[in-house]
Amino acid sequence: MDKKLLFIDCDPGVDDAAALLMAAAAPGVQILGLSAVAGNVPLERTLPNTLALAAFMGTEEVPVYAGASGPISGPAITAVHVHGEDGLRGHELPPHNLKAREETAWDALYREALAHPGEVTLLALGPLTNVAIAFAKHPRLPELLKEVVLMGGAAAVPGNVSPAAEFNILADPAAAEAVFRAGARVVVCPLDVTEKSYLTPEELEELAGQGSAQARYFATVMGETVPWCQEGYGVNGAILHDPAALMYVLQPGLFTGKKCWIGVETQGQVSRGKTVCDAFSDAKKEPNCTLVYDVDRPAFGRAVLDIMARS
Ligand code: BDR
Ligand code: CA
After folding, report:
1. Percentage of residues in the chain with pLDDT exceeding 70?
2. Which of 115, 242, 289, 293 is 20 to 30 A distant from 89 in Cα terms?
3. Which helix (H) or strand (E) holds 175?
């Protein structure tokens, strides 16, 4: 079986960490590179966290690249209230000797896409700054990528940072806008689907009992978010935003989506960062992406456990 070639751009972030641990354990996946972007915490934290995760995942050979330290425009925001000042809620990873490569995130992504035209899936788990810079600097890149699968936005549900906007889009709306306009094959996993992609307390317990250090780490850091998911979203479990986008890459059959047009509000007084989705209106604008909006939740939970059992 040919392996799925993945380049992952991330801002760890506890759910980014869970997604990376899953990606490393998943069968049939080759990770070509990992890149860090400022997001949940500043780049000074997301980059060391990505390096520590690469070592902990047992994928020391996968190169790690630094990306942007702030958005293309507007103020930087973080989510330390969720992920902690260190981005991993204080759950330190084992020491290692890995270092980031000299090459930038955007040049490395282009080089890999050129080497494997039409085969590389870019999984974008943070603000879209690195991706927008890559598309601006390398105009052939959108066409060279197989697809861009991103966690971001909110189609028919409220935002999670503001009433209108989801974190990854609000953190750099201009970058997100540029990505939707670039002509790439884009798959969007917004809050509509990621808030339905959770592990129940029973599943988290099963995960913790699987035995590997990676499964225990995943269960611990995500398990801590359960009270907050219960209170804020009425979900009895740990919401897995970034792992949901990875799962779409691995098992798209678990999800429901439709092609549609998405535009990003880059200026609004109260709606900055809103993803305006023409999924159901009469406008019927020319689609520029696939919107994923539903998931088979029990099958998703089972799949997470099956994948992590291989770690
Ligand atoms: C997204 O924002 C971050 O806090 C998470 O890592 C995820 O990528 C959810 O809105
Ligand atoms: Ca993230």
Report:
1. 100
2. 293
3. helix 173-181
